[in-house]
């Protein structure tokens, strides 16, 4: 490798961040020492420009996983029990600053991606008066609520 090629390569790596992205698995204690580790799922490397915005980064990560995700990252020299949630450009800048302080030459950030759970909101039910007027009675919906031949329910005694 020539000196000029080496400089270009160094400049390129200084402007690039690599995320080691794990998704689809879970963090669980390891037997026998109980230290947390990531188990199952997939792990991929995502290389992005250092100038990337949080929304662009999250978009790339979501595309990689195939669904919308939330991002938590491991700080340098910390275990998996101290993950930091990244939700904004400021959070991302703070994370990069931490990595610059501890490991400026090897910028590989351990990222854990979790699918965003969307809560389904039930559709609003109509007001009670409207509901009663438009809905059939529960007896007509249930085939088990049989009526006797006289039209009375089996638990009532008919008076003859």
From TrEMBL:
Annotated ranges, domain PB1: 31-114
CDD domains in alphabetical order: PB1_UP2 (cd06410)
Entry-linked InterPro entries: Gynoecium_Dev_Regulator, PB1_dom
Superkingdom assignment: Eukaryota
Region of interest (Disordered), ranges: 117-160
Residue ranges with Low complexity bias: 130-153
Descriptive protein name: PB1 domain-containing protein
Organismal lineage: Eukaryota, Viridiplantae, Streptophyta, Embryophyta, Tracheophyta
């Amino acid at each position: 490798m020539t000196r000029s090629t080496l400089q270009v390569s160094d400049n390129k790596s200084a402007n690039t961040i690599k995320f080691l992205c794990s998704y689809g698995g879970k963090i669980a204690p390891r037997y026998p020492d109980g230290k947390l580790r990531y188990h199952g799922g997939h792990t991929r490397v995502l290389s992005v420009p250092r100038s990337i915005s949080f929304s662009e980064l999250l978009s790339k990560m979501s595309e990689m996983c195939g669904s919308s995700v939330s991002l938590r990252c491991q700080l340098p020299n910390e275990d998996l029990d101290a993950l930091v949630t990244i939700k904004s450009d400021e959070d991302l800048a703070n994370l990069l600053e931490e990595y610059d302080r501890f490991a400026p030459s090897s910028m590989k950030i351990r990222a854990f991606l979790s699918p965003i759970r969307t809560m389904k909101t039930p559709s609003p039910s109509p007001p009670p008066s409207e509901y009663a007027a438009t809905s059939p009675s529960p007896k007509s919906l249930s085939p088990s609520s049989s009526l006797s031949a006289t039209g009375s329910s089996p638990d009532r005694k008919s008076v003859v």
